[in-house]
Amino acid sequence: MNYKITVHINSIHGNQMAAKINGKFILDGNKFRFYAIAFGRIGGHNVGVKISKNTEKILTKSGHDINTVIEKLQRCLIEGNIKLPEGLKLDSFAD
After folding, report:
1. Domain extents for the chain?
2. Which of 14, 26, 51, 82 has a CA 20 to 30 Å removed from the CA of 72?
3. Which residues sit opposite 46 in a β-bridge?
4. Which residue, among 58, 64, 10, 3, has the nearest Cα to 34 in the 3D structure?
């Protein structure tokens, strides 16, 4: 299954070492909220993503694998494949 995910960031709080992120992702034309914690520096970049149990149920009923969706979402965040709100620049919180 093709997991084309578009990631929109609502807000980011923190800095280059650690940041709390909230936003939404679009999959199959449906919007879902997510929360994440991003860490940098020692050991490289890492992102932990959390979606609600309700979102998990909806995605599962749609035939999606939750782990694959979360991995794709994490990859988008790590690689900077995201859409930012106006006024927020990627270089303000990423190396």
Report:
1. 6-84
2. 14
3. 39
4. 10
What's the angle, vertex CA 26, arms to CA 20 and CA 30, rounded to 5?
125
User: For residues 36 and 63, what is the distance between their CA atoms, to the nearest angstrom?
Assistant: 23
Phi/psi at 30 (nearest 5 deg)? -105, 140
Closest CA relative to residue 10, chosen from 32, 40, 42, 43: 32
Nearest to 45 by CA among 36, 54, 56: 36
Query: Is the whole model's pTM more than 0.85, yes or no?
Result: no
Q: How far apart are the first and last CA of the chain?
A: 32
- Residue 53 DSSP SS3: helix
Token pair listed for 56: 């998990």
Residues 23 and 9 sit within 8 Å (Cβ to Cβ): yes
pLDDT digits (tens, 9 = 90+) for 29-71: 999 999 999 887 666 678 999 999 999 999 999 999 999 999 9
